[in-house]
Amino acid sequence: MTDADLSLAYRPFSLALAEPLETADGTISAREGFLVRLVDEASDDSVVGYGEATPLAGWTESLADCEQALERAQNALRTGGPSEALEVVDQQVAARHAVSLALADLQATCEATPLYRYLSQGPMIGRVPVNATIGDGSPADTARDVRAAVDRGFDTCKLKVGLRSVEEDVERVRRVRETVSHDVELRADANEAWTYEQAQSALEAFADLDVSMLEQPLPAGALEGHADLRAQNTGVSIALDEGLLEHGVDTICDANAADVVVLKPMALGGIDVARKLAAWLAELEVTPLVTTTIDGVVARTGAVHLAAAIPDVPACGLATGGLLAEDLGRDPVLLEKGSAVVPQAKGLGVDDVWTE
Ligand SMILES: O=C(O)CCC(=O)C1=CC=C[C@@H](O)[C@@H]1C(=O)O
Ligand SMILES: [Mg+2]
After folding, report:
1. pLDDT of 194-248, one tens digit each?
2. What is the complex's ipTM, to 2 decimals?
3. What is the CATH T-level fold of the domain 127-341, as seen in this structure?
4. Which of 129, 141, 289, 309 could form a disulfide with 137 if both were Cys (CB 3.0 to 4.6 A apart)?
5. Where are the domains of the chain?
6. Over 80: is that where the pLDDT of 3 sits?
């Protein structure tokens, strides 16, 4: 394959969620983006690579900026090859995610290697643990949704909190705990909703209810506040998500602000970028965890490969396909007993997404 033989095409898509996901950041009811296809014209059987750019307000560039960036990448690929195509989308994380994923899928496919092994050069991995994602709802609805997830095989559930009063959120978690045993790991994600005092009182109550992790309780800027919450040693891990985009790994680790850092490849510019951050975090003894931005099957499967390339990754937010009412194509990732079964076919393992 020579660079000059590669051509990039993209097309828009819109995927509705089965039910709107209520978060303290806002409601997500549909995901719009671009499916990317790279073709190596020189290969006899036209090897292809797929990528996906699904911008999310507040986390990535806008849909319009993403489209312009993909157009630039299309031209740059023709004139300057892959490195130039990546360079011209350097500041548009969702577009860069798509282009870098398509390049990696194509390369791994050419090498007849599953994408995660192309990324990690590591051992074969059969499964990665995943969590169920439970949106805001009444205490009864939340308990019902968690029960249903546990009945489907999940043993880790992440609840969205921060839309109601702290007392109501604590009541939701209490109802959930009454419904499922302590074998089920419960996490909560407040998406920056709380003041320090609110976070402190939630943390104490959550510790009593055996919640394992509280994600982004305070605004992204509040690194010291997160460090202070951590220093209380309640037994509840503090995870940063939005905080990573604002501060980067070094600043978070220097401030001792997190036990866990959430990596969203779509918001970070790609699975290649996220994998480097994961290695860096692990070196600094902070746990990396992978989630999607409620993406289509191409980006979601890319995130599964990323998680499989991270040693000893904890349960990740990758079981988000079921939140969509429709998808870009067949899902190659089976969810079984709280794990995602990692595709072992060459490349991403996604096909039939680009129908003419
Ligand atoms: O982590 C998960 O279980 C699924 C992904 C998820 O929760 C999110 C996806 C996209 C935007 C956010 O509201 C949210 C998050 O903050 O982690
Ligand atoms: Mg989060």
Report:
1. 999 999 999 999 999 999 999 999 999 999 999 999 999 999 999 999 999 999 9
2. 0.99
3. TIM Barrel (3.20.20)
4. 141
5. 3-112, 127-341
6. no
Residue 160 appears among annotated catalytic residues: yes
Q: Which of the residues 264, 276, 337, 346 is marked catalytic?
A: 264
Residues ≥6 apart with Cβ < 8 Å to 257: 223, 224, 226, 227, 230, 238, 240, 243, 247
Residue-wise pLDDT tens digits, 139-185: 999 999 999 999 999 999 999 999 999 999 999 999 999 999 999 99
45 is in an annotated binding site: no
Q: Is 264 known to be catalytic?
A: yes
The answer to the question of whether 241 is labelled as a binding residue is yes
pTM over 0.95? The answer is yes
pLDDT for the residue numbered 236: 98
Which residues make Cβ contacts (< 8 Å) with residue 296, sequence separation at least 6? 13, 15, 31, 33, 35, 52, 54, 324, 327, 328
Ligand nearest to the CA of 21: 1
CATH 3.30.70.270 at 3-112, yes or no: no
For every residue of 146-158, DSSP letters joined together read HHHHHHTT-SEEE
Report how far residue 179's alpha carbon sits from residue 151's, in angstroms, rounded to the nearest whole number: 12
* Angstrom distance (rounded) from CA 307 to CA 341: 11
Reply yes or no on whether the pLDDT at 348 is more than 60: yes
The closest residue, in CA terms, to atom 16 on ligand 1 is 191
Which of the residues 160, 276, 337, 346 is marked catalytic? 160
Reference 12, options 78, 84, 57, 71; nearest CA is 71
Beta bridge partners of 188: 159, 214
Mean pLDDT of 94-113: 97
